[in-house]
Write a structure and sequence with these properties.
Layout: E1 2-8, E2 16-21, E3 29-38, H1 41-48, E4 56-57, E5 62-69, E6 81-84, H2 93-96, H3 106-110, E7 114-116, E8 121-124, E9 135-139, E10 143-145, H4 152-155, H5 161-173, E11 180-184, H6 188-199, E12 204-209, H7 212-221, E13 225-228, H8 234-242, E14 246-251, H9 256-264, E15 266-274, H10 285-291, E16 294-297, H11 305-317, E17 327-331, H12 335-343, E18 349-353
Parallel strand pairs: 11-12, 11-14, 12-13, 14-15, 15-16, 17-18
Antiparallel strand pairs: 1-2, 1-4, 3-5, 3-9, 3-18, 5-6, 6-10, 7-8
Helix pairs in contact: 5-6
């Protein structure tokens, strides 16, 4: 099947819209007519760091309409509206224990994409989807059926970044009503965490970032206090706001000095959850030990997409998760402009519309 796709020709080069062949559908796969795809920081890494083997097709926050189903697919049918999330094997111990985001085959299934140059066929797909394209071939395990009254283009970014931030707060940190949460880095993931903390009923929700425009939006989405960390001792300011530090921290930065400030801002027995995978820390862990605190890493907020994405949509419809406030739409052909505006910070969550 011939499709249009935004191809990464070589590492670090701009996208090129061109024709690519999609493989034949498998028995447990579906073909999706892609309506939209969000752009996430991981797509930037895929383009620029050698994560994938170019030429490749990136994109991992797809949404669209099922065009065809494999012979063994039973829960999905042609015409279903769907969001596509990460891939998992469904067979390892972690998948069986309902932790698909920590699938033992996660890297193999998600962190690759390649076009066979002899046949021009997309032989491996980014996050099992490669949604920077007009059509996507996806295993049924990646797919989340959603109500047809939900705007598909708006729903697209729920498949990764927004799911990650919200689920890390609600399912990993699990803050009690009346507790305190600090979010370091309020891009799309951090802002999703802010909204989730408000849903959880947190009393103090503190947003920390370098950009005033993001902090202003964080306040509108639920932050009770904001800190521009450029010229402020963040830990001292958080302790001043709360009187004793925060019980929960979401870190989206992975920067040593930021995580150190997060540790210093913890209350006794506080917990930091980090969603960043491409960094190593050099921090004074003795401070963490003295506080009885902990740091936990998480992939996708340990979410089960088929359960959590409909939950987020329900919150959105009730006005409790207004993530549309951070989205800007672009035509598919504007993909390089969308990436540029995401990287310079002028846009928080770009979403491509395939028409």
């Amino acid at each position: 099947m011939k499709i249009k796709a935004a191809v990464t020709p070589k590492t670090g080069q701009p996208f090129e819209i061109s024709d690519v062949e999609l493989p034949e559908i498998g028995t447990k796969e579906v073909i999706i007519k892609v309506v939209a795809s969000g752009i996430c920081h991981t797509d930037v890494s895929g383009r620029d760091t050698g994560m994938v083997n170019p030429p490749s097709v990136l994109g991992h926050e797809g949404a669209g309409i099922i065009e065809e189903v494999g012979s063994e697919v039973t829960e999905l049918q042609k015409g279903d509206h769907v969001v596509v999330s990460f891939a998992s094997c469904g067979e390892c111990d972690n998948c069986i224990a309902n932790h698909p985001a920590h699938c033992r085959n996660y890297a193999e299934l998600n962190l690759n994409s390649h076009i066979d140059q002899d046949t021009n066929t997309l032989v491996s797909r980014f996050f099992g989807q490669s949604s920077f394209a007009t059509y996507s071939l996806v295993n049924e395990r990646n797919v989340v059926k959603i109500d047809k009254d939900m705007d598909l283009a708006l729903a697209a970014p729920l498949g990764c970044g927004l799911q990650t931030g919200a689920s890390t707060v609600l399912k990993v940190l699990k803050p009690e009503a009346g507790s305190s949460v600090a979010v370091f880095g309020v891009g799309a993931v951090g802002l999703s965490g802010i909204m989730a903390a408000k849903i959880a009923g947190c009393e103090n929700i503190i947003a920390v970032d370098l950009h005033d425009n993001r902090l202003e939006l964080a306040k509108e989405l639920g932050a009770t206090a904001t800190i521009n960390s450029r010229n402020v001792n963040v830990a001292e300011k958080i302790n001043e706001i709360t009187g004793k530090g925060v019980q929960h921290v979401l870190d989206t930065t992975g920067v040593d000095m930021v995580v150190e400030q997060a540790i210093l801002s913890l209350d006794a027995f506080g917990k930091i959850a980090t969603v960043v995978t491409d960094f190593s820390l050099n921090i004074p862990l003795e401070i963490l030990a003295l506080k009885g605190g902990s740091i936990v890493g998480t992939s996708q907020g340990d979410a089960i997409p088929q359960k959590f994405i409909p939950e987020l949509i329900s919150y959105y419809k009730k006005g409790q998760f207004p993530f549309d406030r951070m989205v800007k739409f672009y035509d598919f052909e504007q993909i390089n402009k969308a990436f540029e505006e995401s990287e310079n910070g002028s846009v928080i969550k770009p979403v491509l519309k395939m028409k």
